[in-house]
Amino acid sequence: MSKRLTTTAGAPMPTNDTSKTAGERGPVMLDDYQLIEKLAHQNRERIPERVVHAKGWGAQGTFTVTHDITQYTTAKIFSKVGNTCDILSRWSTVAGEMGAADAERDVRGFSIKFYTEEGNWDVVGNNTPIFFIRDPYKFPDFIRTQKRHPMTNLRSPEAMFDFWAAQPESVHQVTILMSDRGIPVNPMHMHGYGSHTYSVWNDKGERHWVKFHFRCQQEIKNYTNDEAERLIGKTRESYQEDLFNAIDEGNFPKWELNIQVMPEEQATTLDFNPFDLTKVWPHDQFPLIPVGMLEFNKNPDNYWQFVENAAYSPSNKIPGIGFSPDKMLQGRVFAYADAHRYRLGTHYEALPANAPKTAVHHYHKDGTMRFFPQMTGHPDAYYEPNQYEESARPDPSVAEPPLRIHGDADRYTQEDKDADYVQPRKLYAEVLDDDERRRLHQNMAAAMGPCSDPVKERWFAVLGRVHPDYEAGVREAVKTAGDDNAIPVTDDTPTQAAE
Ligand code: HEM
């Protein structure tokens, strides 16, 4: 039997398609409040899209601990093999707006919310182990170059390569972006990385530095530029379709959580900075240690409620897991919660996607959409400290061991170091094979084709410092691509008037 349609205030509605008019043909009467309500609601159906990573796809699932890592961390979720918790993922592209095509060449966001018994732990990473920059000061400028030009309102390769050429530490990430890994066929066929160095501590108060890796249990698959262009001509929503249908048909994607671990003191003795987000930790020195399995087995009942409303933040951590001196991480610890208060509202943590699945007790108070009861444990305890036994109190036993800081607080100049070229050089010369290098040259040439000559030359100089063959290969590919990048206007080119 159908349900009775009601107003938002619960009163039964006589109609949902005919306005109340003064005469048979109108005008509409102002007291047709439900018509006004319906139009007003539609006007409020949008919130600001995420300033970056606006286009995304999500799923719900379960995390199961498969290996014992209690020697490294006190985090309750890892206290026993077999422990499980619910998880919510959101994968995304970085630069495109909400309506952007899915199969674009871009870094992919890889966010997981673990709803643990000691609160929500968010890993807000990417499908690459590193990033373009290592100082949060540069992030807004970097993102400007990825978004639209203020005058043309078009994406600007000139701005992208101009910025990258001035930030040589970006060449490692740009190499990955322009490689075969730059266009995964969908989120189910790529690895994920926490990217930053985090820390964990054990019950003896010993700290280790860690990196989180999500190893894809499906085959790694990517599109070439041509394949992606053809696909986007047919559908702009290929990721949403692939992901939703796979889960709907019971083909649940899985990732294995692994960690790389470094004892606290070792960080001071390495020949690279382990807190520099533009560097990987070599796997032969820091092997992957398996921890658990993530399985995504449920499509959210409502995309908006669980994927659009999802508020991920590197600041969401649980006892046993901490930050590191990584400057970028500190910038992000501030930026995300601030973005959520603006995008979703003050009490965004109380929305179903973000609400912890454990008891919550805090003294934050009122504001818009304050729809939850007092969380302090006692009606008279609206401040802390207080005299009421049952009220919520801090628990010093979960305190993090002190973070040892070396050196004086200062701004250190960004030197142009050869260290920035070592890892990309290894990637280019030792990891990629000839075919992969050829495609890298071509992809990069296609991306930088529209740039001015001075910007091209500055970027070639960066590539030359990575490896002379890299510079020569991309130079050649740019020359060969020649005018292919220009869109020819012919008599057959449709115009507005002709249509
Ligand atoms: C200082 C550097 C950075 C700043 C200030 C920053 C800021 C932001 C902001 C404001 C958002 C939108 C949040 C929202 O409205 O929900 C966002 C989204 C995101 N960022 Fe960053 N970001 C930085 C670096 C990074 C890095 C290094 C990574 C990956 C390693 C990353 C991965 C993501 C992901 C995956 C999302 C989308 C989260 C989701 O699915 O909702 N960001 N970032």
Structure report:
- With 499 residues, this protein is α+β, with helices and mostly antiparallel strands.
- Among the domains are: 1-45, Cytochrome C Oxidase, Chain J (Irregular); 56-134 and 171-357, Catalase HpII,  Chain A, domain 1 (Beta Barrel), CATH 2.40.180.
- Helices cover 27% and strands 15% of the residues.
- It is built from 12 helices and 10 strands.
- It has helices spanning 33-43, 139-146, 157-166, 171-178, 225-234, 238-248, 303-308, 327-343, 419-431, 434-448, 453-466, 468-481; strands at 56-65, 84-93, 108-116, 119-126, 192-193, 198-201, 207-216, 254-263, 289-298, 321-322.
- Strands 1, 2, 3, 4, 5, 6, 7, 8, 9 and 10 form a 10-stranded antiparallel sheet that branches.
- A hairpin with a 5-residue loop joins strand 6 and strand 7.
- Helix 2 (139-146) packs antiparallel against helix 3, helix 10 (434-448) packs across helix 12 and helix 11 packs antiparallel against helix 12 (468-481).
- The protein starts with 32 loop residues before the first helix and ends in an 18-residue tail after the last helix.
- Bound molecules: protoporphyrin IX containing FE.
- This is catalase.
- Its cofactor is heme.
Summarize it.
The radius of gyration is 26 Å and the shape is globular. α2 packs antiparallel against α3 and α10 crosses α12.
